Amino acid sequence: DENYRGEREMGADVCVFSDMSTSDALQMSRRVDPRGVRTIGVITKIDLMDRGTDAAKMLMGEEIPLRLGYTGVRNRSQADIREGKSVRECLEEEKTFFATHPTYRLLPPHLVGVHSLVDKLTKVLFRHIKNFLPEIKREISSKTRVVLDRLQELGEVRPLSVFYIPTHLYTFVYTQYIHSDTVVYMYIYIYIYIYMLIC
């Protein structure tokens, strides 16, 4: 929670856990979002719960309510990864798992599955952008005016064109040549002089 940056910069806190009763993530989310108005609970490894138990009450928000609700997902296992199963295959297996589970198949579809989670997060993001876009635009306009005012205070800029570089270099070398007896400066002086005549 020390890294919490404010309402405008975070549309939702995604709280991921596999056991609600011992979830440090859930406890931390309550510290930054005590009313539970912008936390999405993600219950992972939902297929690995003990036989005879399920997460239906958690998903329905009956234990710790969250305004944005909960979503249960079935994670890719290490075995799936070792066997080289694609993400698409694992998503199909997840879909089959929830569709055939005696409890989860009776729940509203938006409570389970990775696709449901993606849909929720997308809606939260768009709502967040819509709410704060006018404020962000005002802030950008304000800062732009400050920068433009500062530029005006600094006065007109006199850019040093690449075409002026030989002239400045010529002046410098000429000065050095006049105040020294080195042949090197003489050759450089002549070279730059010829270059300026050509250009």
Automatic annotation (TrEMBL):
Residues of the Dynamin-type G domain: 1-134
A Pfam entry, by short name: Dynamin_M
Keywords: Hydrolase, Membrane, Transmembrane, Transmembrane helix
Entry annotated with the keyword Ligase: no
Enzyme class: hydrolase
GO cellular component terms listed in the entry, alphabetical order: cytoplasm; membrane; microtubule
InterPro entries membership: Dynamin, Dynamin_stalk, G_DYNAMIN_dom, P-loop_NTPase
Enzyme Commission designation: 3.6.5.5
Organism superkingdom: Eukaryota
Protein's recorded name: Dynamin gtpase
Native species: Toxoplasma gondii (strain ATCC 50611 / Me49)
Lineage: Eukaryota, Sar, Alveolata, Apicomplexa, Conoidasida
